[in-house]
Amino acid sequence: MPTKVVFFLLPKLHLLDLAGPAQVFSTANDLGHGYDLYYVAEVDEIVTAQGIPVKARLDWPELGPADLIVVPGWRSPRFSPQAPLAAVTKQRLRTHHAGGGQVASVCSGADALGAAGLLDGRRYTTHHDLTETLAARYPKAQLIRDVLYVEDDRVITSAGIASGIDLALHLVAVQRGAEAAARVAREMVVYARRNGDELQESAMLRHRGHVSDLAHRVQDVIDSRYADQLRLAELASGVGVSERTLTRVFTAATGLTPLRYQQILRLERAENLIGHGTTIEAAARAVGFEDARMLRRLRSRPAAG
């Protein structure tokens, strides 16, 4: 079943807070990853902070634990004593989360989650201009500064404006895999990052911050077949260039040779398997190494960029 993503819209919402994440999930759906988008409000038309009216539905779709509610930011909680949210909407947010669902916010949308009681006892972030206001308003929550997004017990908050794209790409990566998120980022021509408040980034996203179509096409092949024995000649033939040209363009775009990129993908997947109890030997075989010697050698190297 497709994941339902409900955007709850408040008056004077910021367009990019809504459009950025909506584009991510819409693009993911276009690529076959199953997302249905809904736009709900307490009135049937919202005028954005940028002056554009947006139509919304008043009724909510039926939601399950796999579904997501996103509250985009609006202008601005600094000028109102509390989030302009009806009691029934606050209860709906609480009920969805209590039933196992995810709730997310962009920018000042964190104020809505706080008003619903969903920030209490949890870590969160928001736009840097709003940190002092929300820290005072929700003293039971732990504000995390200077990060793109924070996830705590199915409550996901992001910083300001464009960070909603990063949050949505992160959710696609978690729900549908890093390869899916990388493809979405490529389609949107954005720098794909998953750093949030985490220390690790998937190589599938970390090395997509370029605009070389040829390198992206080769990465698409390696991402989907990283456990296979991929010859440079096969990769070059697939994109219609010489091996020398492929190596030059790919290295300039990603900072890695195609082989090194594949090794990093294998290593990351193997580390994930080992972290979940798989033996080094079994992990090596699962990611395409003939034996564990190469995996051990790669694990002993300094972390790749």
From TrEMBL:
Keyword Secreted: no
Stretches that traverse the bilayer: none
Protein name in UniProt: Helix-turn-helix domain-containing protein
Pfam families from the UniProt entry: DJ-1_PfpI, HTH_18
Native species: Kribbella qitaiheensis
Xref: InterPro entries: Class_I_gatase-like, DJ-1/PfpI, Homeodomain-like_sf, HTH_AraC, INH-QAR
Top-level lineage group: Bacteria
GO molecular function annotations of the record: DNA-binding transcription factor activity; sequence-specific DNA binding
HTH araC/xylS-type domain sequence ranges: 216-305
